[in-house]
Amino acid sequence: MKKVFYLNTCDTCRKILAQFDLTDWELREIKKQPITKEELAEMHKLTKSYDALFSRKSTQIKLRGLDVKSLGEKDFKELLLDHYTFLKRPVFMTDKEIFVGNDKNNVEELQKFFGVI
């Protein structure tokens, strides 16, 4: 299994995806096809944390008046399943590895994984 979860309207996601040959990867646009409970469980199995998958930049945080500091793992799980913008993206996932988000270190690890650097 090789999947990429991304948002098509996100310039950063498009820029990162464009760096790699994704011909044998399943591309999932999360706005059109939100993540399932099973997929979130697979992500959690690899990260050991819903918090690690949670985007603190989601516009929904302010709209909903959420205090992220007071949220627990159960809250993160529910929010991730509730709205696509709560997922830190892009997420590249294989059976054994996961790369979450667009921070510099993650992108460098992805480049190593794909043999780009």
Automatic annotation (TrEMBL):
It holds the Pfam family ArsC. PROSITE patterns: ARSC (PS51353). Gene3D superfamilies: Glutaredoxin. It comes from the Bacteria. Belongs to the ArsC family. This is Arsenate reductase family protein. It comes from Chryseobacterium bernardetii.
